[in-house]
Amino acid sequence: MSAKSTIGLVGLATMGANLARNIANKGFHISVFNRTTEKTEKFIQDFGKESKDKLHGSKTLKEFVASLETPRKIILLVKAGQPVDDMITELATLLDKNDIIIDCGNSHFKDTERRQNALASQGLNFIGCGISGGEEGALHGPSLMPGGSKAAWEKIRPIFEKVAAKDFAGKPCVIHIGDLGSGHFVKMVHNGIEYAIMQILAESYDILKTIGKFTNPELSKIFAGYNKNSNLKSFLIEITTKIFNKKEDGKFIIDYIKDAAGQKGTGKWTTEIAHDLGIYSPTINVAVDARIVSGDTSGRTMCQQFFTLKTSKTKLSPAAKKKLIKQVEDALELSTILCYEQGLGLIVKADREYKWNLNYAEIIRIWQGGCIIRSTYLKDLAIALGKDQKASGKIFTKIMKNLGGDKQKFWRKLMSLSLENGIPVPAFYATLNYYDSYAKARLPQNLIQAQRDFFGAHGYERTDKEGSFHTEW
Ligand code: NBP
Fold first, then answer.
1. What pLDDT does residue 1 have?
2. How far is CA 472 from the centre of its chain?
3. For residue 230, what are the contacts with CB-CB under 8 A and spacing of at least 6?
4. Does the Cβ of 80 fall within 6 Å of ligand 1?
5. In the predicted model, is pLDDT for residue 350 greater than 70?
6. Residue 2 has pLDDT above 70, yes or no
């Protein structure tokens, strides 16, 4: 290769390989490097022709760095954690002032800030960029959430805007999120919302299967019906309808998948940071817990010998089954709205704490395409958070009316029915508690304050006069 590549990418696993192909298919020359050289060779063999020779493989990091235009722009898509630090250390010795490293992995935003500060002292730019959409997104258009130096962002902007997914209006699903670790923070919250919505969908499945006795093809049709609801139409529901219909060797594969879900960094980090920032995001918390309990297979087996369920076995008439489908839709709709709300609450609090000066409407807009939590509801939500006060007020009122209407009554009834039948619905329940806790004028924590004062003389504030008080109980 004589001319130099516009950009480079390190790490050719699922995300890196697909993003590199996407970048090359959009017409940019891209050099790639992977720790295991055979993977680079196979990648070039398999996909080199696809983009008319825009992909260039390097055997060594030195050769890779030398193949790039300056200032060099290098995307990292290696395993999050120590591999990112190792790769940065190696690269930093080969790079020149003003070169840019873009970590597109799921790194913790505090690690991103540490890396930015360390590299800045060497004159290097570091951007922490969240990427969502899995392998399909990486290949055809992901949602991208870059944070860090604005000047460095301007250098990568033409490439990122071309490879990103498009929102409902055809604009690229990428913006400069803000300074420092804000891009990785927003991606982390995106994943927290993803955990919450996936748990709510799993609970809907359990209710419909256990109480409604619906078959897999019926479940697929039910979820396809939910996907016609403009507040629910989403990538996650779309794939759910496909999952229920998928057969292998004549068997529905869903019935043979072990019920133990893994949970990696981002979900747990979201709950930790929510606690650190004092933000109530119960659905995200219980979604992480629900995966933890599902994975405790030995604990579950042991408890099943001793825990007796005194539950009803509700038998539904055809009319009642129809009603159940609607009740689940209503609960799902309101819960999903409140999952986005919880994630947003966390972003707003972090923005105030870290002074990132984020644009919330734009963050919601770039989640409209490419990412896992994309949903038609995000069109309304972006308007509700936008600058047009009249339009925003109108949509906000519509959302609040929906939350406070009859669907809420059906959601409460569904919770009773689920609990009577012994179906764990932690995410549905936590979301309803979230709504109720904010809606209720007086919470019972006056008793907690009295108890704390009783045993620890912690003092309390009163509703009828100013100041701090203590009682000799
Ligand atoms: P993985 O997270 O599985 O990482 C595998 C890649 O890291 C391989 O290229 C591997 O090279 C490289 N690597 C490792 Br492991 N240790 C290394 C080291 N010390 N130095 C250099 N390279 C090293 O890949 P992925 O699933 O494509 O994810 C990449 C990043 O994107 C992760 O942070 C992930 O959390 C994030 N992400 C993933 C998804 C998804 O759907 N998979 C979605 C969004 C974000 P090798 O070939 O030599 O072993």
1. 55
2. 49
3. 376, 377
4. yes
5. yes
6. no
Active site residue 194: yes
CA proximity to 165, closest of 142, 187, 186: 142
Q: How far is the CA of 80 from the centre of ligand 1 (A)?
A: 7
Cβ–Cβ under 8 Å, residues 237 and 376:
no
Verify whether residue 268 is a known catalytic residue. Answer: no
In our burial notation (b when 16+ CB lie closer than 10 A, e otherwise), range 187-216 reads bbbbbbbbbbbbbbbbbbbebbbebbebeb
Catalytic residue among 194, 329, 333, 362: 194
Return the CATH class of domain 187-439.
Answer: mainly alpha
Residue nearest ligand 1's atom 19 by CA: 83
CATH of domain 7-180: 3.40.50.720
* Residue found by looking up tokens 């689940």 in the block: 328
Regarding the beta carbon of 191 and ligand 1, being less than 6 Å apart is answered no
Is the per-residue pLDDT at 91 higher than 80? yes
**Fold category of 445-473 in CATH:** 1.20.5
Ligand 1 atom nearest to 264, measured from its CA: 35
Q: Is the CB of 265 under 6 A from ligand 1?
A: no
Residues 218-234: pLDDT tens digits?
A: 999 999 999 999 999 99
Could you state, in order of their start, the residue ranges of all structural domains in the chain?
7-180, 187-439, 445-473
Q: How confident is the model at residue 207 (pLDDT cuts 50, 70, 90)?
A: very high
pLDDT digit string, tens, across residues 228-266: 999 999 999 999 999 999 999 999 999 999 999 987 789
CA 79 / ligand 1 centre spacing (Å): 3
For 359-403, how does the pLDDT look when each residue is reduced to its tens digit (9 = 90+)?
Answer: 999 999 999 999 999 999 999 999 999 999 999 999 999 999 999
Q: Which atom of ligand 1 is nearest to the CA of 14?
A: 27
What's the Cα-to-Cα distance from 210 to each of 180, 224, 305, rounded to whole Å?
47, 19, 21
